[in-house]
Design goal:
Length: about 290
């Protein structure tokens, strides 16, 4: 029995519920719809008692992981700037709060509604329950060691710790994944579920991953953008080439010189453009491609 579970005795029942009394003579209601096996008055029963949103003492015996395992996934169901985050951890009609002390001063960085957070629970001297964000070190024994074959594979990752320079998450297979800020296509938040590509498998079985597209995928976007720009030009010509100044390429296309050269190379290989030395690139017409 862990800190949060209590042993109670069935003191009474009616058509809809059993009534459980603990050692402190607090009486809790256990709704019969939540009970699978028959219970009789006088039976001792192990479960969890709490005060719900309607200020009623409730008892459950089908316990969520945050109680049985000591931690679990919770869902953000409320954001209160003056209080913190309200988390659904699996208790009927009861949310647990993550206090402001554990959250960023910038509310824009808070997890969004419905975000999944890895949390554990505590109880204070006033018998109030609180949820706390977990860190990677807290679940060292829970995570699995990732095999080398995952290199370059994509995983679905739920982010649960902000390291400042990146995010730590767990994959669906319980592999620990770190995504450095330089490998984030867009800034990530706690509780996000993202698809990330494995870029390194460490000897200890932990993973580094990226949400940025592979080089050839990014190149595809750059090439499509250049093609679209050419199509809008009156003569379907851009006065840019491999000897053009980098700042001019950046000004016109928003690309670095190396990005520009790779994208043009891809377009030439696809027979979409032709490049005239020291002059620029032309979009080929359908007649040119025949």
């Amino acid at each position: 029995m862990n800190t949060f579970q209590i042993m109670g005795k069935v003191s009474d029942e009616n058509k809809y519920a059993y009534y459980i009394q603990d050692e402190a003579n607090t009486t809790y209601e256990l709704v019969k719809d939540l009970v699978v096996s028959p219970i009789e008055v006088g039976d001792s029963i192990l479960g969890f008692g709490y005060i719900d949103r309607d200020n009623r003492a409730k008892f459950i015996i089908d316990l969520p992981p945050i109680i049985t395992e000591g931690f679990g996934w919770g869902r953000v169901v409320g954001r209160r700037p003056n209080l913190g985050l309200f988390i659904d951890v699996g208790l009927p009609n009861k949310d647990i709060v993550i206090s402001l002390d554990e959250l960023s001063d910038d509310i824009a960085k808070w997890p969004e509604l419905d975000a999944k957070l890895l949390v554990q629970m505590s109880i204070d001297e006033r018998q109030r329950y609180w949820a706390h964000l977990l860190k990677a070190n807290d679940i060292e024994q829970y995570r699995k060691s990732a095999p080398n074959r995952l290199m370059n594979q994509s995983l679905q990752v739920t982010l649960f710790e902000d390291k400042g320079v990146g995010m730590v998450g767990l994959s669906q297979e319980n592999f620990e994944v770190f995504i450095h800020e330089s490998e984030q296509l867009d800034p990530l938040k706690l509780g996000q579920v993202v698809e990330a590509r494995v870029i390194k498998v460490h000897p200890n079985g932990k993973l580094n991953a990226s949400t940025r597209p592979r080089a050839f995928e990014a190149l595809e976007d750059d090439a499509q953008m250049i093609q679209a720009v050419l199509e809008k030009q009156p003569n379907q010509f851009l006065p840019l080439h491999d000897k053009s100044p980098s700042d001019e390429i950046q000004r016109q296309l928003g690309l670095s010189k190396s990005q520009f050269k790779r994208a043009v190379g891809r377009l030439m290989k696809a027979d979409i453009v032709t490049q005239v030395r020291q002059e620029g690139i032309y979009l080929k017409t359908s007649g040119d491609n025949q």
